Beta-xylosidase/alpha-L-arabinofuranosidase 2
Amino acid sequence: MGIATLTLITLFLLLLLLFVASGDAIGPFACDPKDSTTAALPFCKLSMPIPERVNDLVGRLTLQEKVRMLISGAAAVPRLGIKGYEWWSEALHGVSDVGPGTRFGGAFPGATSFPQVITTAASFNATLWEAIGRVVSDEARAMYNGGTAGLTYWSPNVNIFRDPRWGRGQETPGEDPVLAGTYAAFYVRGLQGGDGDRLKVAACCKHFTAYDLDNWNGVDRFHFNAKVSKQDIEDTFDVPFKMCVQDGNVASVMCSYNKVNGIPTCADPKLLRNTVRGQWKLDGYIVSDCDSVGVFYNTQNYTATPEQAAAEAVKAGLDLDCGWFLAQHSEDAVKQGLLKEVDINNALANTLRVQMRLGMFDGEPSAQPYGNLGPKDVCSPSNQELALEAARQGIVLLENRGPSLPLSHLHHRTVAVIGPNSDATVSMIGNYAGVACGYTSPLQGIGKYAKTIHQIGCADVHCRDEVLFGAAIDAARRADATILLMGLDQSIEAEFKDRKGLHLPGHQQRLVSEVAMASRGPTILVLMSGGPIDVSFAKNDPRIAAILWAGYPGQAGGAAIADVLYGTTNPGGKLPMTWYPQEYVSNLAMTDMAMRSSPRRNYPGRSYRFYKGPVVYPFGHGLSYTNFVHTIVGAPNVVSVPLDGHRRNGNATVLGKAIKVNHARCNKLSVGLQVNVKNTGSKDGTHTMLVFSVPPAGHWAPHKQLVAFAKVHVPAGSEQQVGISIHVCKFLSVVDVSGIRRIPIGVHHLHIDSIKHPVSLQAETLGVIKT
């Protein structure tokens, strides 16, 4: 993107921010009952169905008015009593002021800042994700009622964390498509509410699709052409978006900056019109990433004129432009015959329907559902307690020799707290964050349990020199235990900043090793990061007693870390991504999108599903202070897959010993498991149970794939039974090289930790399956 374009965007956003800040948004957005000239208009009548109201409004607008409503800073239509609206707000892990639609101040100085998504995903707790969504939308609605926020939130980010160097991997739920899709569905449900067609806020799953590179080795997201096979698109990259639309009923999908197989995603009708709206049945709008239309014209040179770019985007299925491009060029595109006004009408109808579902055309906000929410509902004690609980559940215990954790109140009364993240506050909330209600740093959290000796050891996470090492080493010699808080922050990994490697930055590793050598008591390494870190040196160092990963744990992260260190909380998090050794990325281009390994070209494959090489810690790894034992007490050995009648006379075959999913009667076809989980240790604990499937051998299948997970609290010495339902067509299917999803016939092995259970899938009837 050129300097001139960036300057225009910056000016545009500043003007929007001034517009939003200066306007009085507390009154009705539209259909003010006090305005006799507009209140009686059909589109304001609540008794009419929303589609009829939308059609009435669209029919009253001029072409000039329509095109000015196709952008994120949608213009007002004073003659119809409609105010201007800023569509861009963010709520990745709490209400954020990254977008110009939301601002903090006055009665709303901040909002609850939950852990970054990668940390929350490590809880593998879908009910927690939905609960966080409910709190975030409560606070968003409260701020909207107070005139400081919008109702359309471009969150969550459900891209696959494909490469461990990706700077935005922290925003995602990890590397597994089922985990990412389940997170998407539950968080979106929490945000949007459960009041039928009415929306509490409108969520948005982004960035569609195959978007997971920001700026690596001279290639940036504005120029990147992701070359992706049909198999990987269907099997990996599109799965979270499909689940977000179909299971979460999300109100919006955002297309990304990059090209996919030579076509900008925001100009590709196969992706937008055919897949998102056609096959998946999106009930909502499709929005561009900010200035994406301008990018594919100015930077990618995809069209010869700006009018062609506007026409291509709208005809592909884009409804809203984050930026100004469509407002500038759509009218001329119509005049030049490149675009029909009916195309603009259809795009506008999709955005207006969402606004009407939000109640924005229902008159006075205070008289509507959620109209009672206000400042008292933001940063409330219960909301902040949930942020603390989310951080506790997301912390992963990677290593515990001895065991050395939890620390003892009696034996570890003086603790050395060392490291560049030891007194972290803002860095704990990661990116796309807002203004937190307040912070508890690790130093403060540990200080509630023990007397602390604090030394940072490194001036910052870059740790460019060893000037401060001496004081840190001396502190470790004087303390009963040493806690090192190391890792990364947004200066290392962030939007538009991919990592160069996987080691700790600068001299951090040397600080850890020297402190551990000098420490009088146990040395505990606590890592803050979004992406994985190669800490093989620490894993193999017997002087490092334990290792924790806290991700970016949110505003209460320090308290959660301390609770885990001292055993108030028994850790139950599991890694949502593979932790690779540095050698994995040494000769691996981030631009290579292939998921599956290829021995022919010495390509290792990506994620636990397709990579079989050495790891530092595997996907799903995480220890507890107690022990859990599983027993499968109920499960079928054979499941029949009924066909839907797509048969014809002839030789009886099932192509490739796999049935096309769309030829099976899938609705309630599932495998039910009953699993007893026994806590054989001496501490109460909450167990994260992961269920994997190993499909029958074949060229299409991954090594194994996550098919279900559950969270269960089990007191010490007791046992709980957990029911698991695995949808056969969704989770026991695989994708062939043509991108067709099929159910392999034969024995699938279900794995829960060390136990296995075989389930044989058989075709209910045999016939020649149409292919």
